[in-house]
Amino acid sequence: MEEYILVTGSGKEQIRTAVRNLANLYAAEKAAQGIEIRVLNDTTFVVTFSHVPELEIFEYFVNYLRYPEGVELRQDATGYVTLGSDTYHIPEVPGTRMMFFVSKEDTAYDTVMAVSEKGYAYLCDFGGGVSKLPESERNFVELPLNLEELELLDRISPDPHTAKGASKNSGASGCMLALLALASGLAVSLFWVILAVI
Predict the structure, then answer these.
(1) Would the pTM of this model clear 0.90, i.e. be above it?
(2) pLDDT for 69
């Protein structure tokens, strides 16, 4: 198994909703087509891809599944990938196994932490920046998984009627799009409150 995201702290309907929303948000990306969800246990799921995402998109997906839109539950998402020839902004050699996750201390909402199988740690932001860290918040740990033994819960592709179509070239990450939508909704609400007071 090469690229996958392990999502914990979720239920079947929550993970379906989160992945469906992710696929719709990133509909312009080939990687959003045919995302599979497999059941590891009642609260842990393995998310795999029919079309391998570029590393940058994979980082977005890990972050999104940590902060999913339309899901009340705060779940944990840990992604695993073997670096190819395009290592994006990670200063590791191709073939290195990496683990991606969102820090427990995260307040930016548009970063992921990365740790290599050798223990090198990085903070990656969605502006393309990367900072090497003296140590990782979490050690690289990967459980042996056999997808053939896991129940296939669902296979999800973007819904053509509700897909938003963000991509890495759209100028904003999924989390930023969600924050912009929230901010504009709050601005409209504030406008009506001010009018009611006047």
Answers:
(1) no
(2) 87
